[in-house]
């Protein structure tokens, strides 16, 4: 069993001084660009577009969404890292882009801790441990006991090497001293289908992907891998409630800026984006696709980045995961 201190925290390169709350006096002098390192239509793209209009109205400048997909988010991230640090170009990034690529890719081409500073968290959706309904388990303890009855461990459906879901299962194995064999599929929906068909009997997958399947009885939800229960499935307990407080995994989207962006610009951008996110229209729109608005301070996002980087570095090292 890994202990809490074994996962550790970074020395906090993202953590900001408590006094870093400069009054927002900055205004943009030209259009602001939100770079999305994925194609249009996905959750990260949606996150950019739900804040686009509110930002533009508050800042008095057009806000443009610029999709630059490729290399699981690395291409768009490299582009933003190289832009002037003046508040006019921001990266709207998924958790994998900011805290998994840097620890599983040999050469991501950007250094999250050196190249970016936090603006705000946007939205979150936890992972969830699910099983095929035919498996006679209903809680974490029963899953662990079942896994240990199978020599070499059961097969689990993986949404891809280096995904937050795969790392979530590898973290579960480390924390519980169990074994399981990854069967890779092309993304979360394909992995969910594999569990529904009992091709691979269980998995850690994003709650936004599998929530409707659990509601319909096609899958059994065992545990939410986040600090709080999932609103759409209030009866599914968290990992912490079942004795695994160190098991935290899921998807989130955040906005970061190039390093050395002036404090007044960062403060104003945080203020404007948080206000745009907290409108009922945005909250409802994101809830429909399984995400919760989680607008935060820059300090809170900095801590999340540091914690996740530390967690996934440990898991990747222990599980020997690498993406070329």
Automatic annotation (TrEMBL):
Q: Which InterPro entries match?
A: BUG (IPR005064), Bug_dom1 (IPR042100)
Look up the domain of life of the source.
Bacteria
For the keyword Signal, the answer is yes
Signal peptide boundaries: 1-24
Q: Which organism is it from?
A: Falsiroseomonas frigidaquae
Please give the Pfam families that the UniProt record associates with this protein: TctC (PF03401)
Keyword annotations for this protein, in alphabetical order, are: Signal
Family according to the record: Belongs to the UPF0065 (bug) family.
What's the protein called, per UniProt? Tripartite tricarboxylate transporter substrate binding protein
Kindly give the PANTHER family that the UniProt entry links to this protein.
BLR1237 PROTEIN, TRICARBOXYLATE-BINDING PROTEIN
């Amino acid at each position: 069993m890994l202990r809490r201190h074994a996962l550790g925290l970074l020395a906090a390169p993202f953590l900001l001084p408590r006094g870093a709350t400069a009054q927002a006096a900055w205004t943009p002098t030209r259009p602001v660009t939100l770079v999305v390192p994925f194609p249009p239509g996905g959750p990260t793209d949606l996150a950019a577009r739900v804040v686009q209009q509110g930002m533009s109205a508050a800042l008095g400048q057009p806000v443009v969404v610029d999709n630059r997909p490729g290399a699981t988010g690395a291409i768009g991230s490299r582009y933003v890292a190289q832009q002037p640090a003046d508040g006019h170009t921001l990266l709207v990034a998924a958790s994998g882009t900011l805290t998994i690529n840097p620890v599983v890719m040999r050469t991501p081409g950007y250094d999250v801790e050196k190249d970016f500073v936090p603006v705000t968290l946007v939205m979150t959706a936890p992972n969830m441990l699910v099983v095929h309904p035919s498996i006679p388990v209903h809680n974490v303890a029963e899953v662990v006991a079942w896994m240990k009855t199978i020599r070499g461990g059961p097969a689990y459906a993986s949404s891809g090497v280096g995904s937050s879901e795969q790392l979530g299962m590898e973290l579960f194995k480390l924390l519980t001293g169990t074994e399981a064999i990854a069967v890779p599929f092309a993304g979360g929906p394909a992995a969910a289908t594999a569990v529904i068909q009992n091709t691979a009997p269980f998995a850690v997958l994003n709650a936004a992907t599998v929530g409707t399947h659990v509601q319909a009885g096609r899958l059994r939800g065992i545990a939410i891998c986040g600090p709080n229960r999932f609103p759409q499935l209030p009866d599914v307990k968290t990992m912490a409630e079942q004795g695994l407080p160190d098991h935290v995994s899921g998807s989130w989207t955040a906005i970061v800026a190039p390093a050395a962006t002036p404090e007044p610009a960062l403060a104003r951008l945080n203020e404007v984006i948080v206000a745009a996110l907290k409108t009922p229209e945005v909250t409802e729109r994101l809830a429909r696709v399984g995400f919760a608005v989680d607008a935060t301070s820059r300090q809170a996002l900095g801590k999340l980045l540091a914690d996740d980087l530390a967690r996934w570095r440990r898991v990747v090292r222990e599980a020997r995961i690498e993406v070329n």
